[in-house]
């Protein structure tokens, strides 16, 4: 087997960031804990059924009503355990109804989706962990208040993908997004891409189109136009990719562009889509923006939204700047929609 070229590993990247700004030492400490837990996760996920019934339902539900799988709870416990010993005052997790208070002397809070893509566990499709590190706020009224900050306040954020490669995507508030890949033999993450740029050359959209009939007209119009390809107003042939794991779609988009949409729809409970602002949309938006892409709730930047609650959902659109901007125009400019999607007006009338 060929030797891996000697490049910077995650630990020395963190050391460099702390040298540049010593105030980041607590954040780096949390990221080291995430790295260690991610390596453990990678080990057990790669064993799959040899490890246990990771994709089996536990018969319990999380606050959103999703059925918890064995691996959801295992991942939650593993990351929380890893945070002990780092300056994490409290954790919000998809799997916990309330913030969990850890170190009262800590000065950071972490929001996380310990296991993203639970429906893919048994299918051997990429799954992941999403994390967001925030500073505590002064004069907060209870632990929840620390989490109700906009995504712009994130000190660092990112996600891990457990796939053919285990990858760690991470960005600090200052500096471009970085991508590391786990070298299983050395048990450390090595930098693979510094400063990926969300390109525009791939015309790929990711959306669960089985929800088409529930979408609002601007989303239907945009996807109709993608499907029409060069015969339609966008004059470009699109391809479709949808993994069912936000982390896998986000990773692909970071590397080669395209667009992801999980809009709000008319199903009960889906007014704001399915994805959660604190631990899904915000961290993804953070790394996408730092890679030159864009992320919105169809209209406004994700990172400017003030969360109304720790588990609040948000419509999520992200990817190549120009295409995300296009979706905003479909939403905010009826004239544009009518011109670009001749069917849009008709569909609008049909819906009245
Ligand atoms: P989680 O497993 O943390 O609940 O997240 C699943 C999310 C996300 O990864 C994916 O993009 C989306 O849910 C898939 O939703 P649908 O099953 O509605 O397509
Ligand atoms: Mn998720
Ligand atoms: Mn999850």
Task: Describe the model.
The structure is a single chain. The chain is α+β, with helices and mostly antiparallel strands. The protein folds into two domains: 10-194, Fructose-1,6-Bisphosphatase, subunit A, domain 1 (Fructose-1,6-Bisphosphatase, Chain A, domain 1); 204-344, D-Maltodextrin-Binding Protein, domain 2 (3-Layer(aba) Sandwich), CATH 3.40.190. It is 32% helix and 22% strand. The chain contains nine helices and 15 strands. The chain has helices spanning 10-20, 25-47, 70-83, 217-228, 246-256, 277-289, 321-332, 334-340, 342-351, and strands at residues 57-61, 67-69, 88-93, 100-101, 108-116, 127-135, 156-162, 166-172, 178-183, 188-194, 204-206, 239-240, 259-262, 294-296, 316-319. An eight-stranded mixed sheet has the order 4-3-5-6-7-8-9-10, with helices on both faces. Helix 1 (10-20) packs antiparallel against helix 2. The chain is globular, with a radius of gyration of 20 Å. Residues 345-352 have low confidence and may be disordered. Bound molecules: 2,5-anhydro-1,6-di-O-phosphono-D-glucitol and manganese (II) ion (2 copies). The site of one manganese (II) ion (MN) has 4 residues, from strand 5.
């Amino acid at each position: 087997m060929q030797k891996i070229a000697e490049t910077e590993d995650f630990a020395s990247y963190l050391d460099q960031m702390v040298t540049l700004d010593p105030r980041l030492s607590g954040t780096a400490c949390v990221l080291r804990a995430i790295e260690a837990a991610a390596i453990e996760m990678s080990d057990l996920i790669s064993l799959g059924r040899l490890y246990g019934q990771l994709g089996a339902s536990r018969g319990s539900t999380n606050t959103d009503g999703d059925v918890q799988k064995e691996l959801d709870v295992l991942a939650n416990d593993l990351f929380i355990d890893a945070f002990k010993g780092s300056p994490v005052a409290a954790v919000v997790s998809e799997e916990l109804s309330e913030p969990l208070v850890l170190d009262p002397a800590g000065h950071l809070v972490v929001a996380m989706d310990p296991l993203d893509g639970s429906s893919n566990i048994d299918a051997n499709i990429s799954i992941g962990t999403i994390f967001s590190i925030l500073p505590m706020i002064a004069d907060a009224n209870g632990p929840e208040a620390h989490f109700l900050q906009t995504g712009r306040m994130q000190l660092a954020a990112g996600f891990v993908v457990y796939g053919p490669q285990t990858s760690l995507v991470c960005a600090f508030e200052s500096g471009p997004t970085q991508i590391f890949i786990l070298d299983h033999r050395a048990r450390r993450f090595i930098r693979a891409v510094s400063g990926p740029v969300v390109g525009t050359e791939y015309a790929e959209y990711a959306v669960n189109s089985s929800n088409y009939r529930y979408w609002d007209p601007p989303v239907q119009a945009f996807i109709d136009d993608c499907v029409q390809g060069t015969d339609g107003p966008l004059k470009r042939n699109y391809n479709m990719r949808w993994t069912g794991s936000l982390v896998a779609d986000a990773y692909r988009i970071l590397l080669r562009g395209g667009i992801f949409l999980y809009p709000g729809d008319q199903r009960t409970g889906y007014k704001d889509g399915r994805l959660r602002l604190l631990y899904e949309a915000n961290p993804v938006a953070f790394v996408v923006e730092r890679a030159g892409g864009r992320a919105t709730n169809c209209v406004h930047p994700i990172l400017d939204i003030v969360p109304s609650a720790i588990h609040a959902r948000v419509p999520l659109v992200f990817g190549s700047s120009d295409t995300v901007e296009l979706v905003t125009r479909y939403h905010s400019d009826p004239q544009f929609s009518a011109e670009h999607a001749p069917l849009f007006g008709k569909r609008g009338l049909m819906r009245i």
